[in-house]
Amino acid sequence: MSDVQMDRRIPVSVLTGFLGAGKTTLLNYILTANHGQKIAVIVNEFGEVGIDNQLVVGADEEIFEMNNGCICCTVRSDLIRILGDLADAKFGKGNRKVDFDRVVIETTGLADPAPVAQTFFVDQEIAENFKLDAIVTVVDAKHADQHLDEGHEAQEQVAFADVLLLNKTDLVSEEDLQKLEHRLRSMNSAAKLYRTQQSEINLQHILGINAFDLHQKLEIDPGFLEEEDHDHDDDVTSIFFRETNPLDLNKVERFINEWLVEHGADTFRYKGVLNIKGVKRRVVFQGIHMLFSSYPDREWKSGEAPASEFVVIGRNLDEAWFRQQFANCVAS
Ligand SMILES: Nc1nc2c(ncn2[C@@H]2O[C@H](COP(=O)(O)OP(=O)(O)OP(=O)(O)O)[C@@H](O)[C@H]2O)c(=O)[nH]1
């Protein structure tokens, strides 16, 4: 029997990409696509409370959330524990047996993918049960230059990618796309690069591709397999907001207008759901810097207490200003 036939390890795909690039959009696309596979999903978010669980489509996949820290540092032990539980469930060692074909991990936009990938090589039990299939990095064509200029996380995500999805091609010119492709290629010539809109990609290009090559990664980062601390940009913080009283739509609009004018440059990413007075549906609202969007989503479910919950991630955020403005949005 060949090595490939002997390999019972569970394939793992890691989705990375800077804040707002389109990772959740890609995850939803994967979960709703007709591929006949059962996928266990691990979602890691920056911020105290997960918002993505509200934005990931309802599917019967196993979804595990890891909050309160970044997957590449403080919650790596959580990742090891969840993967251990998953392996037990799949191979029938624990109390419950869950069958699934692969694992997809969505990292926070601020995660450095190298330590996440490292987990699959340095932890022996994980290495025996899982096989890192590929690191898929989603790139926001509109904001990539800015993110690559400003922070090393975005650079690491590109450098470590096995597949680069140049997403949001609808928002920039052909000329800018070509310049960006050139920049990405100069940072990582080995990765496959595809242009996408709404992260739509033939799944055969990203799942089960057996693309992660340890030797190549060691060339980029010779210390890849050594445990080491790494730095994050400490100025980047998140603020979580929650309010159960309904909000006044006009006041919310005024708040957001003022926010984008005064603080748009500092807010990398914001997303959540709003409970607006007189509106039966929850309103999803999200954005990246000045690019803001909102739309009515599903109706609040019976038994679900309507609440506004959202997270703002940015640099040098004026938390007092945000809290005051948000408090002013409650309907009288
Ligand atoms: N115009 C345009 N918008 C897109 C495209 N793909 C995704 N978006 C939008 O970009 C926003 C961010 O997408 P997400 O999938 O939530 O991004 P993310 O990388 O998961 O964001 P974080 O988890 O916060 O880092 C959403 O409003 C998407 O609808 C695209 O191809 N074109």
TrEMBL record:
**SMART domains found in the cross-reference section:** CobW_C
Q: Which organism is it from?
A: Cohnella hongkongensis
Classification via PANTHER family = COBW DOMAIN-CONTAINING PROTEIN, COBW-RELATED
In this protein, which residues make up the domain named CobW C-terminal? 236-330
Keyword DNA repair present in the record's keywords: the answer is: no
What this protein is called in its record is: CobW family GTP-binding protein
> What Pfam families does this protein map onto?
cobW, CobW_C
- What keywords were assigned to this record? Chaperone, Hydrolase, Nucleotide-binding
Q: Does the keyword Transcription regulation apply?
A: no
Which reaction is catalysed here? GTP + H2O = GDP + phosphate + H(+)
**Family membership noted in the UniProt record:** Belongs to the SIMIBI class G3E GTPase family. ZNG1 subfamily.
